[in-house]
Amino acid sequence: SLAGPWKLAISGTSFSGYNALSVGSYLEVLPYVYMSSLSLYGNGVYSPIVSEFNGKYVLQGAYITNLTLANGNYIVKNSILGHVKIFNASVTIEDSIAKSISVKDSSLTIINAKIEDSEIGINAIESNITLSSVTFENTKTAIDYVDSNIINEGISLVNTTRLSEYPTPVVSYPSEVTS
Q1: What is the pLDDT of residues 24-39, one digit of tens each?
Q2: Which of 69, 84, 108, 124 could make a disulfide contact with 145, Cβ separation 3.0–4.6 Å?
Q3: How far apart are CA 80 and CA 99, in angstroms?
Q4: pTM confidence score
Q5: How many helices (H) and strands (E) does the chain have?
């Protein structure tokens, strides 16, 4: 793998014909495969960065600006994601960073991840969401949901205005019960 620290120096001939050598600077090559967009629909996925394991499609070490996952079981690990759309799927996102996630009619589990730099971190419609060690950073609203179940097993809010659009439900009882 070429990932890791490198020192970059450029040499050649200057305009006037003299040998030239730059001082050099250090850079870090990250271990990610860049794709501007990727859409997986669960019916025989053919991509060099996706493997199949026990009936689940595994996507690992990717930098994807727009990712769509539908009609299948997916695991996304060690990746940097922009906008993620999930439809009718079961998805686990582990040790990754995402900008925003839209989920409809799906099951989503996020473990040890960060959602950052967006208006709404997760937008869920009729879905089941489990969040474990998830950080929402620089988001206006962490989670916006309709007819969804949200299981919170540990989230952090950093520079996030609010957890949800909706207040936490409060159970109240009448002050006097008569029969």
Answers
A1: 788 777 778 888 999 9
A2: 124
A3: 9
A4: 0.79
A5: 0, 17
